[in-house]
Amino acid sequence: MGISGASGAIYAQRLLMQLEASPEVGQINLVISGPGRRVISDELDISATSDTEELVAEMIGRPSNKTLSFHPGDIGATIASGSYPVDAMVIIPCSASTLGVLASGSSRNLLHRAADVCLKEGRKLVIVPRETPLSVIHLENMLKLRQAGAMIVPAMPSFYHRPANIIEMVDHFIYRVMDHLGVAHSEETVWQGHGRI
Questions:
Q1: pLDDT, mean of residues 161-168
Q2: pLDDT band at 194 (very low <50, low <70, confident <90, very high)
Q3: In total, how many domains does the chain have?
Q4: Mean pLDDT, all residues of the chain
Q5: Fewest 10 Å CB contacts: which of 50, 61, 177, 195?
Q6: Is the peptide bond before 35 cis (omega within 30 degrees of 0)?
Q7: 162 in a domain, yes or no?
Q8: Do the domain assignments include residue 191?
Q9: Residue 196 lies in a domain
């Protein structure tokens, strides 16, 4: 899981909480970029100076029992190699800058490299861009990444489930992200339609 510097830290927080609670999810490898830490601090009121283990504990409300954090500058980390097996990766939220780096294939940190490894190894890569409006450059970068095998899942919550609050709205979107990651969850995300008249 990668967290970059786009607005929408709540999406990362809620997904991390769900993955931590899931019995079918093993170790979670986490990379938070410097700008990602800043957004977490600004939007979730969590200290940006906390070490990553403390930051994760604050994000999920308890010490983590399965999240392993990597420094974004650690290009020698296990997840930087295609020989290290991972089932999938998600970047949530994904900044326009990270989109551009990934689309150009010019990794600058571990978050970029781990995503590039997923692309080159043909593994699931789910990208959750959080930007509006989208420029032609953003759209072209998303198209390049989709053509390279990434799943583009923009942070666009639905309303057909009639959310009563922001958490319900965010969580429903998170369940859709989990669908794309292949992680089971307890919530119904499939539109059932209306009965015939």
A1: 94
A2: low
A3: 1
A4: 94
A5: 195
A6: no
A7: yes
A8: no
A9: no
Buried b (16+ CB within 10 A) or exposed e, 94-124: bbbebbebbbeeebebbbbbbbbbbbeeebb
List the domain range (segments joined by +) for residue 24: 2-181
In single-letter form, the type of residue at position 164 comes to A
Do residues 189 and 176 make contact, with C-beta atoms less than 8 angstroms apart? yes
From 154, 74, 164, 162, select the one nearest 111 (Cα to Cα): 74
Q: For 172-190, give the secondary structure using H, E and C.
A: HHHHHHHHHHCCCCCCCCC
Strand-pairing partners, residue 89, are 125
- Tokens representing residue 79 in the block: 């997840």
Residue 131 sits at φ, ψ, to 5 deg, of -150, 145
Taking the complete model, does pTM exceed 0.90, yes or no? yes
Q: Which tens digit of pLDDT belongs to each residue from 50-107?
A: 788 899 999 999 999 899 999 999 999 999 999 999 999 999 999 999 999 999 999 9
Predicted confidence (pLDDT) at residue 190 exceeds the cutoff of 90 = no
CATH number for 14: 3.40.50.1950
